[in-house]
């Protein structure tokens, strides 16, 4: 029989689905009988779900514009490397 | 202007040839994730904007040395993570987080839970509650020291695999596991404390 302390120690592997099926089954049997561990695991999973909601999926248009202006300024002020100059020279010869 | 999605094999030679359309395609493809990653890792909008600019400049400048041993995306995200964590580490240190045992419920000598654990996972059942908890977890994330925050952001916020996170941070899997679990426990406790006060 697993104790609550064992569940705490196996929690990470359980969430990451890395437990042997027999151990996973024992843990789930414990959860069925232990509201404290079940509540703890539910809130651990909910924490992960709320973390995933923090992912930014967009970038503000003004920031996109700022990025492009920055790159354009940096690249136009940059001296071409030896290889770029050579490539450009050779292209000119063709 | 909508840029065309190009795969690595198409994009890399064009970038190496200094093709401006390829640079535009690269930015369109990666800018949102680079900015999001930088924002969550640094915890600061100004720093994230600087990282965004520095990353694309570095990619464009260093693309000649890119050998294709990793995916282009992994290379870009690794540059982003390093740049954002460098910004974070320059700021004053935040608190240390408690030991793992102190972040879970109290146990009896027999190893059983000694006190009731409230299941607040079903509390945020309306938009307002969820928004409140969202703000709270953002604050809690910013309290995490860099070593813990980086793994939580890469795995749980951005959804990278354990292997990808280990590669980006040059971490062993054991170190990743330990930091991620402790980071999650810390965030859970912050949310639990908040939920108990506000929904008692």
Give the SSE map.
The complex is a heterodimer of chains A (94) and B (200).
Chain A: H1 4-15, H2 21-33, H3 35-52, H4 61-76, H5 82-93
Chain B: H1 8-16, H2 20-42, H3 45-62, H4 72-90, H5 100-103, H6 127-143, H7 146-157, H8 162-169, H9 173-199
Helix pairs in contact in B: 1-2, 2-3, 2-4, 3-4, 4-8, 6-9, 7-9
Uncertain segments of chain A are none
Structural class, judged by helices and strands of chain A?
Answer: mainly alpha
User: What would you call the shape of chain A?
Assistant: elongated
* CATH domain class name of the largest domain in chain B: Mainly Alpha
Mean pLDDT of chain B: 88
State the major sheet of chain A: none
CATH overall fold name of the largest domain in chain B: Arc Repressor Mutant, subunit A
Helix content of chain A: over 70%
The H/E string of chain B reads HHHHHHHHH
How many separate domains make up the residues of chain B?
Answer: 2
The outline of chain B comes out as elongated
**Level of helix content of chain B?**
55-70%
Structural class of chain B: mainly alpha
Quick take:
The complex is a heterodimer of chains A (94) and B (200). Chain A has 94 residues and is mainly α.
Q: What can you see in these coordinates?
A:
The complex is a heterodimer of chains A (94) and B (200). In chain A, 76% of the residues lie in helices and 0% in strands. Chain A is built from five helices and no strands. In chain A, helix 2 packs across helix 3. The longest helix of chain A is centred in the middle third of the chain and has 18 residues. Chain A is elongated. Chain B is mainly α and 200 residues long. Chain B folds into two domains: 83 residues, Rna Polymerase Sigma Factor, Chain: A (Orthogonal Bundle); 100 residues, Winged helix-like DNA-binding domain superfamily/Winged helix DNA-binding domain (Arc Repressor Mutant, subunit A, Orthogonal Bundle), CATH 1.10.10.10. Chain B contains nine helices and no strands. The chains are: A mainly alpha (94), B mainly alpha (200). Chains A and B meet through helix 1, helix 3 and helix 4 of A and helix 2, helix 3, helix 6, helix 7 and helix 9 of B.
């Amino acid at each position: 029989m697993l104790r609550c302390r064992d569940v705490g120690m196996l929690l990470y592997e359980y969430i990451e689905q890395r437990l042997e099926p027999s151990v996973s089954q024992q843990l789930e049997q414990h959860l069925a009988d232990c509201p404290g561990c079940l509540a703890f695991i539910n809130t651990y999973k909910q924490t992960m779900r709320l973390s995933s909601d923090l992912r930014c999926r967009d970038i503000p248009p003004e920031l996109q514009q700022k990025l492009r202006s920055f790159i354009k300024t940096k690249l136009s002020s940059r001296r071409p490397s030896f290889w770029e100059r050579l490539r450009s020279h050779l292209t000119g010869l063709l | 202007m909508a840029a065309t999605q190009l795969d690595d094999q198409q994009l890399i030679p064009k970038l190496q040839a200094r093709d401006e359309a390829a640079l535009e395609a690269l930015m369109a493809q990666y800018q949102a994730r680079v900015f999001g990653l930088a924002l969550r890792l640094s915890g600061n909008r100004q720093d994230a904007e600087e990282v965004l600019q520095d990353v694309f400049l570095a990619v464009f400048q260093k693309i000649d040395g890119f050998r294709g041993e990793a995916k282009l995306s992994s290379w870009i995200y690794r540059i982003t993570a390093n740049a954002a964590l460098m910004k974070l580490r320059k700021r004053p240190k935040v608190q240390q987080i408690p030991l793992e045992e102190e972040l879970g419920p109290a146990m009896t000598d027999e190893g059983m839970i000694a006190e009731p654990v409230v299941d607040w996972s079903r509390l945020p059942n309306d938009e307002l509650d969820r928004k409140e908890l969202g703000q709270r977890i953002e604050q809690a994330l910013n309290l995490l020291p860099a070593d813990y925050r980086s793994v939580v952001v890469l795995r749980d916020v951005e959804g990278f695999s354990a292997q990808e996170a280990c590669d980006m941070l040059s971490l062993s899997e054991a170190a990743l596991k330990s930091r991620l679990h402790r980071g999650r426990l810390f965030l859970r406790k912050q949310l639990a404390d908040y939920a108990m006060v506000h929904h008692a």
